[in-house]
Heme ABC transporter ATP-binding protein
Amino acid sequence: MQMVELETAGIVKRFGTLVANDGIDLSVARGEVHAVMGENGAGKSTLMSILYGMQAPDEGSILLRGQEVRFRSAVDAIDHGMGMVHQAFKLFNSLTVWENVVYGREPRRGPALDRRAAIAQVGALAERFRLSVDPTARVGDLSVGVRQRVEILKALYRDARILILDEPTAVLTPQERDGLFDVIRTLKADQRTILFVTHKLHEVMAITDSVTVLRQGRVTERMATRDTTPAEIIRAMTGRVVNLTVDRKPATPGAAVLDVQGLTVGTGAKPVVDKLSFRLHAGEIVGIAGVAGNGQTELIEALTGLRRPDGGRVTLSGRDVTEADVEAHRAAGLAYVPEDRAVTGTARAASAADNLLMGYQRKAPFTEGLRLNAKAVAEHARRLIGRFGVKIADETVLVGTLSGGNLQKVVIARELTHQAPLLIAEQPTRGVDVGAIEFIHAELVAERDRGRAILLVSAELSEILALSDRILVMYEGRILADLPAGAADEDRLGLLMAGRTGQAA
Ligand SMILES: Nc1ncnc2c1ncn2[C@@H]1O[C@H](COP(=O)(O)OP(=O)(O)OP(=O)(O)O)[C@@H](O)[C@H]1O
Ligand SMILES: [Mg+2]
């Protein structure tokens, strides 16, 4: 029989009048991968932070291997064998991998830190759990996927028996995700227990043993993964059937809205963006596919004014914006959903109403003369909150307290509703629940049909395929292929993304 590793009984957590956890009973067996699912704001991260000692529950108890525990802090939880990898990593970028991993628990020889022993221990731990990472590398130089491995190493160095992963794959490329799954399998084989929070049903089906579904702070369903289906999980989360395919008619492209000619970022023999040219028309969605690190980030930075290109020319609605900054791009007709919603997308210490207005406050009806029209601002915010299903008490709430997916909805709502001719959307559905994905996809298609030009960047090939009328494959800073939607499928894109055009064979 499987031992119960972790249990909670009647966990309640309130924030003012909002009940984020409303009597949660959880039971997790030793050595299993346990999915925690639920819509944005259902209470998943709140529960995880309670299990990691970062917040105390208002009611209820936690049992570890049958013993009741009360965590006074995260340090206390770590001492009890809990580990957590946060979505926003908590590493020191200027330090090396080993320094981060042993931080606070350094091996010593006499009074001095034993550097050699630390590096050896971290290296051995990495090898044992197949977390390929160089202990002496500087964290700031590492990719997101590798940094996540460092966080996992750090937890394992503190001998975590239960590892909490809150949306660990949201920031990973498909390749990095496969690597993480290998690590999870190794941990499981070592009888470690994993709590896995995700919105991605195929991941739940692929890697987990059982699922607990939360809805409005309560458990609605517990099931063994092998006995359930994605449709059943969706029903438990939302109480309805969600349409996972996107309904759309063929595009009817109009005039060119964005014209990119010979765009170059970087100097030298191999620029990151290498004399890249394409046109994006009104009424079409163009998707950019590519393995991360092939110039997509720099291309978008150059197109949004975050970075000055080193060559070429960019025209937006007939205006030359090659040298323009972000504000000038907005004025010329750019709406932008940035990949990083927490840092560049929102101001956490400002209200939802202010965030929903950000960048557009100088326009009517929000400004009258020099004054902001508070009533118009509030009404606008309430309308968007309702339409986009943002879970929030009211528009005056600071967005810093919103759940991850609800923060993303705020950014999407703002950028979709200002009728700019060009929308650049990076990872538009990252971190949002299935119901919200359905809604955001439908909105993007509706905006296209209203004549907007949309440039879509997504790490999810399925999302690129579902939405794009045309797909540009980027490889080493160039566009390797420009495919109409009908000519693309995952296999063909996969080969192109690896730089294989097919002519060679
Ligand atoms: N510190 C806080 N102050 C006020 N409200 C909070 C705070 N932390 C969380 N909440 C609220 O509690 C609810 C649950 O949030 P939580 O972050 O647990 O959701 P979640 O299930 O993780 O959602 P997501 O899928 O979007 O990450 C939300 O309505 C959120 O706004
Ligand atoms: Mg969350």
Notes: The pocket of magnesium ion (ligand 2) is lined by residues 44-45, 403-404 (CB under 6 Å). The chain has two domains: 4-238, 256-333+420-497. The mean pLDDT is 92.
